[in-house]
Amino acid sequence: MSPQLRKRSKIVLALEDIYAKPNYHFPDVYMKKARQLYERWEASGWKDEREGDGAYDDQTHEQPSRLALFQGAHGHQQAGICGDEKSGAFSIVVSGQYELLDTDRGTYLYYSGSGSVDNTDPRQPAPSTTATMALHTSLGNGCPVRVLRSSTGKSRYAPSFGMRYDGLYTVVSVSYPSNSKGGMYEQFKLERNNGQTDIDMLVHSPSPVEIGQYQQINRVNTATWSRSSDHDSAMEE
Questions:
Q1: Residue 165: which domain range?
Q2: Which of 126, 133, 213, 235 is the most exposed place for a label (fewest CB within 10 A)?
Q3: Is the pTM of this model over 0.90?
Q4: What is the pLDDT of residues 87-110, one digit of tens each?
């Protein structure tokens, strides 16, 4: 968990929901981690989302993106690129958003910058966002980037369900091809670092057990949030 995320989130409440409310049916491993984090809140520093060289277990299956946030693997629930212009990209999510432009070959992938689909200017790409500039910085400093794949992706390496952390990659180049509208866009090539679990082994995650756990959590959470919403509405009346 990062200091940045701590400021944006109700961390204490979230941790209590995970480890202290059995009706949510979180897997034991997450309940244990949540309790440990809660107890070490004052004694230990939070993992900075900028530490892009922090290798997580690359067999970890992050069920929804909220658990990627919980693990510190990706600093934003919605954004595809987490990072800043000064330090570089800390993590990216391969989600198939630009499936007509991007290519995912497992050990390497091509990842397009923001606005790549819509740009119509053949002479220059869309103005770089902070996220896109973060990838430029990573290209320059060589720091590895965490890559997570989402089930919304279309490649054979996308998980069948949820989101999966697939290890560390390095940004090795940037090119400027044209989209279907003739507009120039920025496309980065990332290569998977050596010494990690073979990518072809990771495609077997999530397992049926992990999918079942997520579905159970989702059912309980949906019911709980529904009751909470009904209660809040009644109080307002």
A1: 70-203
A2: 235
A3: no
A4: 999 999 999 888 889 999 999 999
